[in-house]
Write a structure and sequence with these properties.
0% strand; 65% helix; mainly alpha; Four Helix Bundle (Hemerythrin (Met), subunit A)
């Protein structure tokens, strides 16, 4: 039963990789707790002006809105784990019209906003590590899974949308004849 052993090893490797990816995302939130609960982290404070910290609060709000919109668009297809099931559908509505991973974009926005709001080097570094690991590990794993599940339909969707940042369409004036 070589094929069963290979399948089992692949599943264990996938589960370990997913746990590691979630752990890195979680690491981004640890400095926030220290920031809130202790003054020791204040030695890493950066001299951000008040307007930049308020800008961070606005980014957090935008990230929260994007997260809720994304979650609603996914509906019953949402899962905290990388998994698909038999009646899973490819969602291309709501924020998924513009980008393939709006929830990850929302998490990145929230992390960036918290970084500005906290004005703390440790918080910024932790969020950068969290966002980069999420992008490198989880996003690519999810894209492979979606391509396996939806085939050509997903590949066409990939051709028309970007991963995390929407395409900017510049309006060009038409030449009058």
């Amino acid at each position: 039963m070589k094929s069963y052993r290979d399948f089992k090893r692949a599943m264990i490797k996938h589960e370990q990789r997913e746990k590691m990816s979630l752990a890195f995302v979680g690491l981004g939130f640890i400095p926030i707790f220290f920031y809130v609960l202790t003054s020791r982290i204040n030695s890493f404070r950066l001299p951000f002006p008040a307007w930049l910290r308020w800008f961070g609060a606005g980014i957090i709000f935008a990230g929260d809105l994007l997260f809720v919109w994304s979650h609603r668009a996914l509906g019953r297809n949402w899962s905290p784990f990388l998994e698909t099931w038999k009646d899973h559908t490819l969602v291309t509505e709501g924020p998924y019209r513009f980008i393939r991973h709006p929830m990850y974009a929302a998490i990145a926005l929230i992390g960036i906003g918290v970084s500005f709001l906290s004005a703390n080097l440790l918080v910024i570094l932790a969020h950068m590590l969290s966002i980069i690991s999420m992008y490198l590990v989880r996003v690519s794993d999810e894209e492979k899974m979606m391509a396996e599940q939806f085939g050509d339909e997903y590949r066409e969707y990939v051709q028309n949308t970007r991963r995390l940042i929407p395409k900017l369409r510049i309006l060009r004036s038409r030449k009058q004849i």
